[in-house]
Amino acid sequence: EEPKDISGDKTYSIKDAKLRTEEDKRRHRAEQKKAKIRLEVKEMQEIVAQQREHNRTLPPQVQLSERELLLDPEYAEILLAKEKACLEEVRQEKEYATEKSERLLRKLSKRFLSTVETELMALNAFKSSRCVFTFATRAHCDAFRELVDADDELQKRETSERASIIDTDNQQLNTLEASTGRGSEARGFGVGNGAGGSSDDSREEELTREEERKLKRVQRQQALERIKAECPGKDTDMPADLEAIKYALENKGDYRLKMGA
């Protein structure tokens, strides 16, 4: 029977054994030296821990601070400097990969998320297995946004101009009332006092056409404001509907099926 070939990874051939024997010996001696140093360091750590424990048992006025317990401050600073240098070296090594990942993330976000106003989201119920998904909404183009902004600006400008015109008309009306001395009578002009009596004709003769237009404009604006104040809100139900619902609830019949026992 033929002997089996040695195929283990840790077994050297005759040629490799001659080349690597010395290397294995050096590695073995290095490992022994490291183990010895680790043992010494461990013993020193135990001694320091015992000293710290003994220091904590002393009275507060006799205890040493952490800085005073430091045997070699200069060596500690050297170790801290080496630690910072190692951290900086690792950061510089990973900086390229980090920058590359961030750039890729920005490109993906710009490509797929810049045109999305609302992302697709899943809403899960707490006490059941139901799940509801929202709709993903695409964002409007820049031209449409500019048109919307321009329209909003135009509406704001028109509102401010309308408010300024109303204020000017009110001021002119007050000035007119103060000059004529008939404020209450002038405000009643144009509302409608029948087919036109002698008092209305006399007031019309006193006021010029421009003043009449201003008074009518102010009266129309005041009437419009009163109508807006009396209008119900968007979510307010009509009184007729509420009355109909109340009547239906009070007069509804009992339509349950009656079954014999």
Automatic annotation (TrEMBL):
It comes from the Eukaryota. Keywords: Cell projection, Coiled coil, Cytoplasm, Cytoskeleton, Repeat, WD repeat. Residues 1-34, 179-220 are annotated as: Disordered. It is found in: Cell projection, Cilium; Cytoplasm, Cytoskeleton. Residues 1-25 have a biased composition (Basic and acidic residues). One of its GO terms (cellular component) is cytoskeleton. This is Uncharacterized protein. It comes from Octactis speculum. The lineage of its organism: Eukaryota, Sar, Stramenopiles, Ochrophyta, Dictyochophyceae.
